[in-house]
Amino acid sequence: MVERIAERKKTVKSMLPMRNGMSEQNRKAVVDLLNRQVADHYVLITKTKFYHWNVEGPEFHDIHELLDEHYAILSDIVDELAEQCLKLGGQAAGTLAWFKEHTRLSEDEGESIPDTRSMMENLMNDHESILETLHQDIKATDEKYDDAVTSNLLQDISAKHHKMAWMLRMIIQNSTLGAFSGR
User: Fold this and answer.
1) Domain limits of the chain?
2) CATH topology of domain 24-103+115-172
3) What is the pLDDT of residues 31-75, one digit of tens each?
4) I need a surface site. Which of 1, 98, 104, 160 has the fewest CB within 10 A?
5) What does the buried/exposed string (b/e) look like for 123-151 if buried means 16 or more CB atoms within 10 Å of the residue's CB?
């Protein structure tokens, strides 16, 4: 019979000892900011899929497909952020209650579903909010916590958000195509 070994007790704040050139205090601070990013991204993933399911109108197919692409990108980002927490000796947050308590993004209220234009504006605003916090977190990880690896990861994630926000921004722009076709 195989003897069962008990796992260590852990919480979202638990840290494993390690030597990577960073102090434990700095590693804890970086794990905390990463977990806040996980919360923000998880709320954005949920909103993106919700809108993907409920989009309507003549642009339905294109927007439906775009939001599915964004959902996949955001899912990969969450995985990268959570794994970085673990690489630093920390733990990744993972409950909906934790995400809701720690996110900086808002959800749609009640049971109403926004119109398609409002969906695109909401998502663009959320990507831009995340870009603002990423900018702060990139600076903090690089300058305050001396963590170039996490800073580089956040820079890569920021580039993905820039592209997603740009795509959404272009969707909500007024088009002049109708004016040239005599409509």
Assistant:
1) 24-103+115-172
2) Ferritin (1.20.1260)
3) 999 999 999 999 999 999 999 999 998 889 999 999 999 999 999
4) 1
5) bbebbebbeebbeebbebbbeebebeebb
